[in-house]
Specification:
Blueprint: H1 12-33, H2 35-38, H3 41-44, H4 49-73, H5 78-92, H6 112-132, H7 146-158, H8 160-175, H9 182-188, H10 192-216, H11 218-228, H12 243-260, H13 264-280, H14 299-305, H15 322-328, H16 353-358
Helix pairs in contact: 1-4, 1-5, 1-6, 4-5, 6-7, 8-12, 10-11, 10-12, 10-13
This protein binds zinc ion (ZN) (2 copies).
């Protein structure tokens, strides 16, 4: 990609926008056709459907217009061609006005809507931020192995139902007896923001030690090494996590929250925050946060955790609270310095989603 002309006016930017919106728009129309199969019930309940339809409509118009623009400007017609083709297919399939007939019941599903929405929102936020304030200025949007990381992003969103069940199962199995206990009533009666902060402290404390074990125990490290195999840091890089890593970490970090009985609204706010924050700390942005960088996990803090230099190895295990690393003696946050390189020295992890999937058990 680096040899290619990607400047403004070359037709590359319009081509990328067209292909991305065309494919996402086509997926969104598929969600309207098969809501039971392709959409997430919890999200369905809160969708402002009129607004979503408008969004799909506008996305398809932009995808088509930018696709035509890219076809005119760019000698290589692939991006514009993909964008226009998917837009036309989406339009022929009914576009944004596909009717949803009758009652949509809860059933086994894959989270295609979650994938489309989350990718759309995160790209809208982070792609411009990483262009305007890059830490690694020379890094491309489609840097090395970006498709691998997109495959991770796709799979973890598509499997949202499976992941939720696996996350919840151990907590429910061990702590079902705690439901409606006196302490659960006391915890749930606190104000929302206090519950939110308590969840951060409790889950980050658990996650700190699980994370540290993943680094110490050789068998667990084989799973977690995949997350560390990325040599680029950006908003998509954090998605690279083996499913076993995701399930063990989430299930064990969630169990105490379940046992303590936090109420559903602060819990929802917590889940939205942690998923956004997890993307943010991997992002290729050079923001400094003054004194706040000692209070909450920032990109600089977590980038050091991914450092290939010895000084950053096995440091900064916390995700939200650097204080935990300070407390347990694993903090590394030099004033203004960032790691010179990312990844694992002598990286043993193979390339590609499928080979990485089987790597830990080979
Ligand atoms: Zn780690
Ligand atoms: Zn990470």
């Amino acid at each position: 990609m680096s040899a290619e002309d990607t400047r403004f006016g070359s037709g590359w930017i319009s081509g990328v926008v067209s292909a991305s919106l065309g494919i996402l728009g086509f997926g969104a129309v598929a969600c309207l056709h098969y809501p039971e199969l392709l959409t997430t019930p919890n999200l369905r309940e809160v969708y402002p459907l009129g607004f979503i339809r408008g969004l799909i409509h506008v996305a398809l118009i932009i995808a088509f217009a930018f696709g035509v623009l890219s076809l005119i400007l760019r000698r290589n017609k692939s991006l514009g061609g993909i964008g226009v083709t998917f837009t036309l297919l989406a339009a022929l399939w009914g576009g944004s006005s596909v009717a949803i007939d009758g009652h949509v019941s809860k059933s086994d599903h894959i989270g295609l809507d979650f994938f489309i929405l989350d990718l759309f929102v995160l790209a809208l936020v982070f792609v411009p931020l990483e262009r305007l304030y890059p830490k690694l200025g020379e890094q491309q949007l489609f840097r090395r192995e970006w498709l691998t990381d997109l495959a991770y992003f796709f799979s973890s969103h598509i499997m949202v139902q499976v992941l939720m069940l696996l996350t919840l199962a151990p907590a429910a199995f061990f702590f079902r007896w705690a439901i409606d206990s006196p302490w659960q009533r006391a915890v749930a009666s606190q104000t929302g923001w206090l519950q939110f902060l308590e969840m951060i402290v409790v889950s980050d404390f658990t996650a700190y030690w699980i994370h540290r074990l993943f680094h110490i125990v050789p068998f667990l490290w084989k799973f977690h090494a995949i997350h560390h195999s990325s040599t680029s840091m950006d908003w998509l890089a954090g998605s690279r996590l083996h499913i076993i890593d995701i399930v063990i970490t989430r299930a064990l970090a969630f169990a105490p929250l379940y046992a303590l009985g936090f109420s559903s609204q602060p819990l929802a706010a917590y889940l939205v925050f942690v998923s956004f924050h997890a993307v943010f700390i991997h992002a290729n942005v050079r923001f400094r946060f003054g004194k706040w960088k000692w209070v909450v996990g920032t990109p600089q803090f977590h980038h050091w955790h991914h450092s290939a230099d010895a000084e950053g190895v096995d440091k900064n295990f916390a995700i939200h609270l650097p204080a935990l690393d300070w407390l347990f003696g694993t903090m590394h946050l030099p004033e203004d310095r960032w790691p010179a390189a990312y990844g694992i020295t002598g990286n043993p992890v193979p390339k590609g989603f499928t080979r990485q999937f089987t790597y830990p058990v080979r």
